[in-house]
Amino acid sequence: MKYKIFSYLTVFLSLATVMTSCVDNEDLIQVDPNNESVQTFWKTDQHAIEGINAAYGSLLTDGTYMRSTPLMLDAKADDTRSNSPWGSMYNLGRFNSNVSDPSIYGWGYETYYQGIYRCNQVLTNVPNIEMDATLKNRVLGQAYFLRGLYLFHAVNLFKNVPIPLDVEIFHPQKSQAEGWEQVIADFKAAAELLPASYDNVSGLDAGQKGRATKGAALGYLGKAYLFTKDFENAKLTFKKVIDLGVYSLVSNYRDNFTDTNENNSESVFEVQFSREAGGVDLGWGGIPASGWGKTSARAITYAPRDFGWTDAQPTWVLFNEFHDELTIDGQLDPRLDATIFYNKPGGMKLYGQDFATFYAKSPSDLNDIFCRKYQNSDGNYANEMDWRSGINERLLRYADILMMYAECLNETGDTQGAYTYIQIVRDRVGLPNLATAKPGLGQAGMREQIGHERFLEFPLEGHRFDDIRRWGWLQDNAKLKWLQARDAEFNSYVNGREYYPIPQLEKDNNPGTVQNDSY
């Protein structure tokens, strides 16, 4: 049974004004006894835990991993397509988000800064609490990690953004380089303070899974180095994660995308959702309400036709690339069936239904393909129409650590060493030894191979477009034409639109903010 870290913190001062001639001014200020105030909060270790739990809470709302952030990460890549009737969602993947309509991307931006603000409250107030020093360090480490994570998304998706390090309201826009510098600093601080796990600690967080760990901080630190092309530091950092000795690949690839075997040995960091925790209302954003559950709308958003909204689908180029190489037993790559629903010869079940039978009267759907990752489709639910998925979102898997480490080895001159770590990932799904199948790859050839390997290991997980952007493919005419041939959505790409626009509300409220190029 996974632990839940969903307690929320609401801190505000209520003012009651009673107009009488015999009341002193100081008597007019009243504190609502039903709510903690800034004067009474931040006093105990319980307050520290509640404060950091509130910072985790910003991962659960519509702007982040309840729905919008997976779409923002997936939509522009060549593994995903959208024919959503909702224009805002349809345009995400066509590089055409509207500056005047902040739907989806604007909600993400808003929630990243909500999370950053909550982290800054913890970092400002917890150092002054008299409490166990080791617990305090863990709380502060989690605050640094989460601030780094929210800022990572803001810098990665919006380029030049404010970098708040205190609880003031307004902060000037900074350069992307300054943003990455702070992301790296936060993950470094987190790695110094966080434990490898919570199994052997004492205190209010003892044994709780889902909290940020040293491995998570190091993993994202390495990722930040990689995204800024500091391959040497990225390589050293990923090796530290490997050397922790606490992670390994699960034998069943699909276990990474269902509500069984969550927080497993492959999970470096995942967002905790649950159908059992809290109420039944979806948490759209803002201050939490008592009826909010802790569930995700990702499943219904990506669900197959008639089982959800089908706002996102895999591309045919992804489906076809899974057929490029057979396993050592002569079978199709098993990741295909874990990733995509399709009219499979011999049959395929979805939500207890046979694919071919269910879509028999709809030839367009019968001959289409749909997302299977993160679907509650193994027979326990009839569909996703209640919008309430309890599947944890796996943000960082050990497979990604191994693949990023292999990439760093290749970029720092050890192409032969890259084979070893790529093969660990291939071995899980029974693919042939790459050193035998493609021996003697040079650095450029290995780069291409890593692109292929990552495409098939991480589709529909929010990594592909990050890879395309950081590899510079959009600025390479040959690569851009290749992408356009694979995915027609790239035909509407123009330089600068690899980033989302700065929301107009941010520009209005923060004078001097400069809009991203081409918007």
Major β-sheet strand ordering: 1-5
What is the radius of gyration computed over CA atoms, rounded to a whole number of angstroms? 24 Å
Indicate the structural class: mainly alpha
Provide the low-confidence segments as ranges. Answer: 1-23
- Per the principal axes of the C-alpha atoms, what is the gross shape? globular
What is the chain-wise order of helices and strands?
HHEHHHHHHEEEHEHHEEEHHEEHHHHHHH
Q: Give the termini separation.
A: 47 Å
The description of the largest β-sheet is:
2 strands, antiparallel
Provide a descriptive summary of the structure in words.
Helix 5 (133-158) packs antiparallel against helix 6 (176-193). The chain has a two-stranded antiparallel ribbon with strand order 1-5. A two-stranded antiparallel sheet has the order 2-10. A two-stranded antiparallel sheet has the order 3-4. The protein is 41% helix and 6% strand. With 519 residues, it is mainly alpha-helical. Strand 7 and strand 8 form a beta hairpin. The chain is globular and about 65 Å long. Among the domains are: 25-212 and 272-293 and 499-509, Serine Threonine Protein Phosphatase 5, Tetratricopeptide repeat, CATH 1.25.40; 322-383, no CATH class. The two termini are 47 Å apart.
